[in-house]
């Protein structure tokens, strides 16, 4: 079945072809006919399943050629984080222009005045986070009277982050007879309350239940000595391919990032303590391959959508099975395969097995030591270069400078080595 068969606007199909997108994903095949027909949609599918295009193509096909009054958009996409909002916009914006539709991201950490100016000019599509949108509504910079299509993306994460009261206030201000599309990896009690109150006879399309996000993943728990944990983590980060390392706290993320950079692994940290500019630079460096490893907290990582992440590592075990599944969902995206690893001491072993059992995950267990055969076989671990990595243009370290270029040698798994003499203020002593 082609995009034409599904009813997608011809101009959008041409733009998809130019972008190298020829065949629809399963969730797009399932939802597009109903969504384009204006029916409410309840979509359950893991991240990386192609749902952004599923709802994006539907709303752009339905709104093609329409204009919006100043401060009164026609379609609204709500997301839990600004990073996710920006990535949704990155998908929608180039396509929307082909059908004469403009879009605007409305989120905290981005220019307030630019968002207001765009809304005053009139934009048909707004991609927003709940907090910033509520703020603009209260200050009368935006009205939702003309919203005929509303999309809630990753609704379960919005619930987990405490946004449901704001989401309900927002939905109450949209057209009662408007179309609503809700996408969620899980359907717990809070999300189900949204469905029952705001969706009318929704067409349900479930491509994965909440315990099956791991279809293309292998899951491992690696039992290690606490004294070896930092070294083993750095060796895993020195592998070839993109990896994300999860920790529980902002301090833990910064601490681990510093240790990895000191032993020669180019890595960035992503957490709520970073400015939006810093977070954007770190994420762009990761996407472009300037860094192959990313250290993240749970909340910050909810905006990470990078298709070629082949390994997820739980440096700190997640709080619950839902967080495990959300973390794991950063790999094996778009039909790819991936590996998920949890690092645990002997004392933590029982807790990890219990948590993954609740997540419906089959776990393989191995005992590992630094660069032993099991560690290399499961993760592709390699020896870091030992030459400290310094972020150019930043006196304060990672994320704070004007450039995201890393000086010093890459790890063996991190790509080409770069020969350059460090500037005087960038010189660091080689660790003994």
TrEMBL record:
InterPro entries: DEAD/DEAH_box_helicase_dom, DEAD/DEAH_RhlB, DEAD_box_RNA_helicase, Helicase_ATP-bd, Helicase_C-like, P-loop_NTPase, RNA_helicase_DEAD_Q_motif. Keywords: ATP-binding, Helicase, Hydrolase, Nucleotide-binding. Residues 223-376 form the Helicase C-terminal domain. Signal peptide: none annotated. Residues 1-29 form the DEAD-box RNA helicase Q domain. Coiled coil: none annotated. Pfam families: DEAD (PF00270), Helicase_C (PF00271). SMART domains: DEXDc (SM00487), HELICc (SM00490). GO terms for molecular function: ATP binding; hydrolase activity; nucleic acid binding; RNA helicase activity. Residues 391-432 are annotated as: Disordered. One of its GO terms (cellular component) is cytosol. Residues 408-432 have a biased composition (Basic residues). Residues 32-205 form the Helicase ATP-binding domain. This is Unannotated protein. It comes from freshwater metagenome.
